Amino acid sequence: MPHVLIVDDAPDELAWMAEVAAAEGCTVATAESLRAARVQLVRQQPDVLLTDLQLPDGSGLQLVHDLEAPVQTEVVAITGHASVDSVVEALRLGATDYLVKPLDVERLRSILQRQPQEADLRHEIGELRGELRKAGRFGLLLGGSPAMQSLYDKLARVAPTSATVLLIGESGTGKELAAQTIHDLSRRRRSPFLAVNCGAISPQLIESELFGHEKGSFTGADRQHIGFFERANGGTLLLDEVTEMPMELQVKLLRVLETGAFARVGTTQAISTDVRMIGATNRNPEKAVADGRLRDDLYHRLNVFPVHLPPLRERGNDIEMLARHFLAELNRQEGTHKTFSPEAIARLYERSWSGNVRELRNYVQRAYILADDVVEGLETPESDSVDESRSDVISIRIGTPLDEVERRVTMATLERCGNVKRRTAEVLGISLKTLYNRLEVYAMKDKARAAPPKGGPSNGRDNSTHA
Length: 467
Fold this sequence. Notes:
Elements: E1 3-7, H1 11-23, E2 27-31, H2 34-43, E3 48-52, E4 54-55, E5 58-59, E6 74-79, H3 84-92, E7 97-100, H4 105-113, H5 118-135, E8 137-138, E9 141-142, H6 146-158, E10 165-168, H7 175-184, E11 193-197, H8 206-211, H9 228-231, E12 236-240, H10 247-259, E13 261-262, E14 271-272, E15 276-281, H11 285-290, H12 296-302, E16 305-308, H13 318-334, E17 339-340, H14 342-348, H15 356-370, E18 374-375, H16 382-390, H17 402-416, H18 421-428, H19 432-450
Parallel strand pairs: 1-2, 1-3, 3-6, 6-7, 10-15, 10-16, 11-12, 12-15, 17-18
Antiparallel strand pairs: 4-5, 8-9, 13-14
Helix pairs in contact: 3-12, 5-6, 13-15, 17-18, 18-19
C-alpha cells in the first residue's frame, strides 16, 4: 500500500487531497510546514511526496534533501503560479512531476495510481543494469561501448521520473528506441506509447493529428477525430523531429505542457491529459532556436533532461556487434546460416556510417542478399566516399595492427587534404620525404596482394574455395 505525504499550508486543499489519496488506497500523512513535514519523514519515508512550492518556512523542494532514499520517492511539486521557468526549475531541483492550482483531480489520481508498480519497476531497472554490463543490451538498445554505457545510465536514471526528456542525435542513432525504452522502464509502461513525426505531417494537418478535431470543424472533417494527446493519456508521447513543427503550433504545445489541457480543433472545450512528453531532434536545438525554427521557451520546457545519442562512428566495436546481430536476425527469419568473412568485418570499419545504425542495418541486408554462404560485404559506394572525405573522424577496430592504423590515418588525411601531399605531411606532423616513403610502401603491398600466387592452379589441382 503506497504511503503519501502531502505538504500544503492551505487546510482545505490539504484535506481534500488527503481524501483523494485515501480513496485511491494510500496511507496518508499531512503537514502544513517544512518543520512538520520533516517530523513525518522521520516516522515513515513516503512513496509519494506532494508538496507546495511556497510554504511559510521555505520552499517545499527543500524536503528532497531530507529523503533517506530520494530515488524511491516520487516528488510532485504543487504551484499556483505555473510558468516555464518555475516548472523547469522545480523539475531540476528534484521534482519528478508537478500539479498546478486549482488542482486537476483526475491528474492527481493518475499520479497516485502509478505507485503500486514502483517496486517492480526498481527491480526491473536493476536487472537491466546488470544485463547491460554483461551483454551490451538495455531495453531495446544494443551496444557495449563506453558511449552506450553512459547513455544507458542516463536512461535508467530518468525513466522512473516524469521529467520531460529531449533526445538529441543524428538520424539513425535510435532515438525512437531510446524513447520506447524510457517508456518501458517508467511507471507509465502499461499505458500507450505513441510516436509522431512532426516533419512527416503537413502543417495543415499536424494540429488535428496532435489535438484531434470535431466533425465539421474544417473541409473534409466528416467525423470526430481523437488526436495523439488524447490517445496517449496516461502514457508517453514522442514528438520526433520537434524542430520541424510550425511555429504557431509550438505556442499551443507549450500551453499543453504548462497546463496539461488542450482543445480539439473546432471547439473551445478543454480536455485534460496526463502525458509524459519526450522530444527528439536530429538538429542542434540551440542552433534551431537561433535560426528561428524552435521557440526559445519551448526549447527550455523540453530540455529538462537532455540526452545525446552517440553516432555509430563513435561507438567502436559496437559496429561489429550490431552487424552480427542484424545478420543473426536475417538467418533466423530465412532459416539460413550465413556468416561474415574476416574481410567483411574489416570493411565495416572503413565506412563513415553517416546514416548510423539504420544505414548499417540496410548494408547488412543488402550484403546478405548478395551472399551465398559467406557474407563478403559490399564495396564502399561513391556517396559514402564523399561523406568520408568530409569527415574528420574514422573508426578503427580495437586490435587493428599498428601499421594498418598508420595506413588508414595517412590515407584518410591525404584524401581530406585533397591529395595535396605537402599539406598532408604538415597535418600529420611528418616530413614530405617520410610521407612519400609511406605511400611507396603502401603501393608495393597493394601490388603484392594483387599478384597471382606462384605455382597456383597450374599444379593440376582444383584449388578453388568458397570466399
